[in-house]
Amino acid sequence: MKQYKVSGLAKEMGVSADLLKLYEEYGLIAPRRDPGSQYRYYNIYDGGQLVSCLTLRNMGFSVRQTADALRTMDHSALARALEGRRAALEEERARLDRLIPAVEEYAAFLAEFSAPEREPLACVRPGYYFLAQSSSEEFRQTGEQKLLARRLLDELPWSERLLVLRAGALRGDGPFHFQWGLALREDRAEGWPVEALRYFPPRRCVRLMENHDAAVKVSREGFQSVITWLAAEGLAVEEDVVCRVPVTTMEGGMRTAHRAVYLPVADGKWVENLH
User: Which of 28, 49, 65, 141 is a Cys-bridge partner for 61, taking CB atoms 3.0 to 4.6 Å apart?
Assistant: First the structure.
């Protein structure tokens, strides 16, 4: 019977030598070792066992799960394990069905920041369920909020990161209060414990799109362009302001933050252009 070294069997089977050694470490393949040189030698039956390992790997089994299955399970137990794996794949498919449109929408949202002139846009901001994680620049979360935050983080970009400017933050007087947090859009919140989240109902707004140096901290000065626009329009904001904050990117060698600021001032002439 022909014998193969690690590199030979790896080449014949189209896998890496490291993978063969890993399966050997878990007892899935048992090559013969030359007592003098300590070289590993494999045969065609080791190749057959490798196929069994790869079959389970390609169905999502980890190496440890594969070892447990092939070393301890009879065919009935393995069938039950595969049924459990099928159920897990169904859950993953449902997650991907949610994720794909969220990725498409996120890409379209980011593309809007590349417009050379991002004109103010009258629109209806969607409703959000918001989990505040901070009070200005300090985390302020209970144990229950931390657990929910982990769930929301696992669902990004289905969930979103928001910055909420507290009422009066854009006025020249008084403190500048804001909150960072995670949010679910209202139409994506089914099945979530939304009673633990703050609700921002849909609101007619004017949206301002901004790019800025990510190193600049959130402050009234950092929102000066928004304040200037409000003053030029003769408008004032007396409600909390919701800002959608996507990922930072590198623009011209500078780490750049982006934000869509939804100002609840879509009245008068702005209603005429409402989208």
Answer: 65
Strand partners, 42: 4
Q: How far does Cα 62 stand from its chain's mean position? A: 23
Residue 15: strand pairing partners: none
Query: 61 to each of 55, 68, 264, how far by Cα in Å?
Result: 9, 10, 50
Question: Tell me: the pLDDT tens digits for 140-169?
Answer: 898 999 999 999 999 999 999 999 999 889
Of 30, 26, 6, 31, give the one whose Cα is nearest residue 66: 26
Please state, as a whole number, how many other Cβ atoms lie within 10 Å of the Cβ of residue 50.
21
Entry pTM: 0.78
Q: Which phi and psi angles does 142 have, rounded to 5°?
A: -80, 170
Q: Count of alpha carbons within 13 Å of 213, Cβ hemisphere only? A: 6
Measure the CA–CA gap between 31 and 149, rounded to whole angstroms: 48
Cα 116 from Cα 103, distance rounded (Å):
23
Which of 9, 12, 49, 10 has its CA nearest to residue 28? Answer: 49
Please name the residue ranges forming H helices in the chain.
Answer: 6-13, 17-25, 44-57, 63-72, 75-112, 143-154, 224-233, 269-272
Per-residue pLDDT tens digits for 27-42: 999 999 888 888 889 9
Residue 221 and residue 160: Cα distance in Å, rounded?
A: 25
Alpha-carbon span 136 to 216, nearest angstrom = 14
Q: Categorize the per-residue pLDDT at 116 as very low, low, confident or very high, splitting at 50, 70 and 90.
A: low
Within 8 A by CB and 6+ apart from 154, the residues are none
- Contacts (Cβ under 8 Å, ≥6 apart) of 137: 217, 218
C-alpha dihedral sign at 122, 123, 127, 128: negative
